[in-house]
Amino acid sequence: MRIALPVDYAGVSMAMTRPLIDNGARNLRLVCVPTGGLQADMLIGAGLIASVETSAMSLGEAGGAPRFNQAVKDGAITIHDATCPAIHAGLLAAQKGSPFTAMRGLIGTDVLANRPDWKVIDNPFAETPDPVVLIPAIHPDIAIFHAAVADRFGNVWIGRRRELASMAYASARTIVTVERIVDHSLLADEQSAAGVLPALYVDHIGLAPRGAWPYGLWGEYPVDAAELLTYAKAGRSAEGFADYMASKLLEPAQ
Asked: Does the CA dihedral 142-148-150-155 come out positive or negative?
């Protein structure tokens, strides 16, 4: 299955990490929107991931993503090198029902050498040679993210994190964990409506207070930098990673 996960600042559902691992899923094709971090690194370290499409993978100020880096060195995963605009463009094409979209910014870069599925053609509407790159639509099977609030009608408030909407629009199914669930309709409130992902695009909602920890969530709580550093150090070896995952239930400190 193709799984879409968001960038570290956009609402990562760390609460879903342990269930994914415990479920025993394998051979997942990961799409990072548009970069990956702690959650992706844990899933790779646990052996769930067969391929990764991303424009970068790191733990931010905590350094590189250790299990990802090791998996690349070992040839344990397939890498589909991308750029941030290309991943967003692929999701947008899927959202619009188009098989592909065109971009210019990739012309002249080395990224094209590593993406045989991206095609360079001449703009058919130009009178002179005008190369563009065709990016195939990205159709995830499942999008997973965390947000601050949902309502009893299945609507989810994502604020200005519009990449979460793109993930949901492009995906066959969407799973969202949230900090809290309210009884009133978020779409009926003029102050929140513009930042709401409608229930039409949400398949499952789970209540998970502090579910992004150790990442932060906008307007709710900050990043736990110390915990990220602890993981970064432990994840440098397979043994350290295993010990960390065995000792951590991935539940936030209250």
From this structure: negative
